[in-house]
Design goal:
By secondary structure, this protein is of the alpha+beta class. It contains eleven helices and twelve strands.
Amino acid sequence: MTELRDKYLTAIAAAPDEDALEDLRVTAVGKKGEVSLKMRELGKMTPEERQVAGPALNALKDEINSALAARKQALGDAALDERLRTEWLDVSLPARGRRQGTIHPISQVSEEVTAIFADMGFAVAEGPQIETDWYNFDALNIPGHHPARAEMDTFYMHRSADDERPPHVLRTHTSPVQIRTMQAQGAPLRIIAPGRVYRADYDQTHTPMFHQVEGLAIDRDISMANLKWTLEEFVKAFFEVDNVELRFRASHFPFTEPSAEVDIRCSWQDGTLKVGEGDDWLEILGSGMVHPKVLEAGNIDPSQWQGFAFGLGIDRIAMLKYGIPDLRAFFDSDLRWLRHYGFAGLDVPTLHGGLSR
């Protein structure tokens, strides 16, 4: 046993790598190793001989295993030291520039719109994106035969034939928020309702999901003159111009009466929009006086109260203001596009500091 001990401890100490160390382990204490074979011979010994040889063999096996573990640890430490030496890095060198995230133009324009209307006393109201057809259509005086209620234009939620619940839709506008707010708060009222809306359309200027902001003001003596002033102030602040000319064209919306499309005087120079000058007109939103039936749906007496409403696409005015040519690019998740059109994270829109610094 002394010869075995000296033999293997010397070989283990001189093992150059872990492969050589594994070979020694198998030769010494493996199933057919020398120490293992010696332990099998214990059965042939007398009880007195086993009392002496057994503890000695176990102690030898433990000592060899300990030596193997210690040598393996030493080889691992040496390999790590060599790797650290060859992969040495000067941590005092300048670090790689940190990339800053950017704010999506939709988020930025939403904040700009909110800041402008907040200065005019409008609060922000929100509502669910999945609505009943009553809030989305009936409460807004949209009749059952109206084309907007067709499945080719509206996303209806699935329901079984025996489902007695009213049909649900992905809201096609944020106007249901107006009904919910009227029911909850009553009159007088002054709110804007920004948010996602959904329609079954897709091309360069339409996407199945887009963003709208609608405004609602209700009081006892509100008129179209108040609506015109509000929209003029908004356009001047949003496009950051001193003068603006709006043109109201008679139109029809089920939820307003009278109704008007609103155009702005503008010009196009080298593909750039100039607001407030030129000989062209550009439609930007729809508006009108709130229909009495809509007020009744909001639990407001139309004989005592009246108001105006308007709605515009956030994506559309973002395209106009910042020269973005394709609406679909807003939703492509292209980081190159976002780095080009995005806004700095701390670029918070304010009227006194400038909306788009």
